[in-house]
Write a structure and sequence with these properties.
The chain is of the alpha/beta class and about 180 residues long. The protein has a single domain, classed as Rossmann fold (3-Layer(aba) Sandwich), CATH 3.40.50. The chain contains four helices and nine strands, in the order βαβαβββαββββα. A six-stranded mixed sheet has the order 4-3-2-5-6-7, with helices on both faces. The chain has a three-stranded antiparallel sheet with strand order 1-9-8. Strand 2 (about 35-40), helix 2 and strand 3 form a beta-alpha-beta unit. Helix 1 crosses helix 2. The protein starts with a strand and ends with a helix. The structure holds inosinic acid (IMP) and magnesium ion.
Length: about 180
C-alpha cells in the first residue's frame, strides 16, 4: 500500500468478487437483450473493463465524458458533456457504468441527457455509492459497495488525476488534499 493511502477499503480480490456478482445479476436481468454499457470517463474505465467481461450477453459499449470536479475533492455542482456518445441509443437498453455516486448531480445530468434520446430502458450500475452527501433523489439499480463520507482513490478513482491505477480502493490521507484541493 502506498503512503498516501491510509486505509484499504476494498482489495483487488474483493472488487473482483463483487464485479462477478454484479455481472451475474445483470446477465440474468437482461436475458434476451443486448444492452449498451455507457462508461463515464475517466473514472469508470477499469470498472467498465471488468464489468463487460463479467456480463454474459451480446453487448456494446460506449464512452461519455462529463466534467464537474477539477482537482478538488468536492463537487462544484456544474456538469457539462465533454465527450458525447458515438452510438445511437434510441430503443436500446442502456446501462450507465459509473465509478461513484456522491451528490448525485453528475449521474442525474447524464440520465437526463440520455433519457431525452428515448432508450428502451435506462439503468445505472455504480461501483461505489456514497449516500451521505446526496443532493438529488437517485438510487443506483446496481451498486458494488456503499461507502461512508470519505475520499477514496484507486481502481479508476483519482485525486488530481493521480492514483487511478491502484488495484485496490483506498482512503486518501487528508494531508494530500489539504494544500491543493478543498473539502467540506
Ligand atoms: P457527484 O456528481 O457529486 O455524484 O460526483 C460524482 C463524481 O465525483 C464521481 O464520478 C467521481 O469522479 C467524483 N468523486 C466523488 N467522490 C469521490 C471520491 O471519494 N474519490 C474520487 N472521486 C470522487
Ligand atoms: Mg474524478
Amino acid at each position: 500500500m502506498i503512503t498516501e493511502v491510509k486505509e484499504i477499503l476494498y482489495s483487488a480480490e474483493q472488487i473482483s468478487a463483487r464485479v462477478k456478482d454484479l455481472g451475474q445479476a445483470i446477465t440474468e436481468a437482461y436475458q434476451g437483450k443486448a444492452p449498451v454499457l455507457v462508461g463515464i470517463l475517466k473514472g469508470a474505465v477499469p470498472f467498465l473493463n471488468d464489468m463487460m467481461r463479467a456480463i454474459e450477453l451480446p453487448l456494446s459499449y460506449d464512452l461519455m465524458a462529463v466534467s464537474s470536479y477539477g482537482a478538488a475533492t468536492t463537487s462544484s455542482g456544474t456538469v457539462r458533456i465533454r465527450k458525447d456518445l458515438d452510438l445511437a441509443i434510441e430503443g436500446r437498453d442502456i446501462l450507465v457504468i459509473e465509478d461513484l455516486i456522491d451528490t448525485g448531480l453528475t449521474i442525474q445530468y447524464v440520465l437526463e441527457r440520455l433519457h431525452s434520446r428515448k432508450p428502451r430502458s435506462l439503468k445505472v450500475c455504480t461501483l461505489l455509492d456514497k449516500p451521505a452527501r446526496r443532493r438529488v433523489a437517485i438510487t443506483p439499480d446496481y451498486n458494488g459497495f456503499t461507502i461512508p463520507d470519505v475520499f477514496v482513490v484507486g481502481y479508476g478513482l483519482d485525486y488530481a488525476e493521480e492514483y487511478r491505477n491502484l488495484p485496490y480502493i483506498g482512503v486518501l490521507h487528508e494531508a494530500i488534499y489539504k494544500n491543493g484541493g478543498e473539502r467540506g
